[in-house]
Amino acid sequence: MLGKIEHLGIAVKDLEKANQTYEKLLGRKPYKSEAVESEHVMTSFFKSGKNKIELLAATHEDSAIAKYIEKRGEGIHHVAFNVKDIKAELKRLEKEGFKILNHEPKKGADNKWVAFIHPKSANGVLVELCQEIEE
Q1: Diameter over CA atoms, the chain
Q2: What are the alphabetically sorted keywords of the record (predicted)?
Q3: Residue extents of the structural domains in the chain
Q4: pTM across the whole model
Q5: First to last CA, the chain
Q6: How far apart are CA 1 and CA 25, in angstroms?
Q7: Which of 43, 82, 101, 134 could form a disulfide with 116 if both were Cys (CB 3.0 to 4.6 A apart)?
Q8: CB 15 within 8 A of CB 34
């Protein structure tokens, strides 16, 4: 089953400007910035109480984030949920009829295994599943 909302992902054109905006909005600096080379994005993470916000900026014009911004503009890109067993959850959701974008989890930002559910399966919302990578 899906757990709590892990974070909201927000697509931005300029990460530095967006960081400044969210620093003012939330009254704090990001606690982490990280490149995810496989996705061609640079991320910044902010905490707001128990919640997290991930800003995502494209590092390559062919990345999914660049294409998203070109098509839809900046804004909420995805909602991420914590899961305890990402592979089991992917199987469960596929049996429920959801279109799975990643049948095998991949390493994402913030020390997580991630996989995505197609927005057409979830009322237009890209859903990310996140499982903490245990070392």
Answers
A1: 43
A2: Lyase, Metal-binding
A3: 4-132
A4: 0.91
A5: 23
A6: 32
A7: 101
A8: no
